[in-house]
Amino acid sequence: MAAYPLTMAQRTAHVVSDDAVMGGEPRIEGRRITVRQVAEWVEEAGLSAKTVADRYDLDVADVYHALAYYHERPSEMAAVERRRADQIRDARDRGMRSLADLDGE
User: Fold this and answer.
1) CA 56, CA 51: separation in Å to the nearest integer?
2) In whole angstroms, what is the distance from residue 87 CA to residue 70 CA?
3) Per-residue b or e along 32-53, where b marks 16 or more CB atoms closer than 10 Å to that residue's CB
4) N or C of the chain: less Cβ packing under 10 Å?
5) DSSP characters for 17-83?
6) pLDDT surpassing 70 at residue 16
7) Range 7-23 average pLDDT
8) List of residues 6+ apart from 50 with CB closer than 8 A
9) Model confidence, pTM
């Protein structure tokens, strides 16, 4: 049997944090997809885990892992939410319309 390299959708990634990537938010390893985003897509937007996985070339297990991380660490995720709200407020105070405008600085 020949060995084939795994695609992103065929391997389960871990949740990682790095201050230099996505503002240090917990994210799916190797991706710029945060745990907070996954929770928003599934729990607020009502998308299924499979839909999120298909749209973003993830394994369904990655989506569930991100959701478990989100719910197992409520204090950490609340701090992430506060930090993000502060970033948005600060950006608006400086006349920026979105966090995407920060990339231009």
Assistant:
1) 9
2) 20
3) ebbbbbbbebbeeeebebeebb
4) N
5) -BTTBGGG--EETTSS-BHHHHHIIIIIS---HHHHHHHTT--HHHHHHHHHHHHH-HHHHHHHHHH
6) yes
7) 75
8) 60
9) 0.76
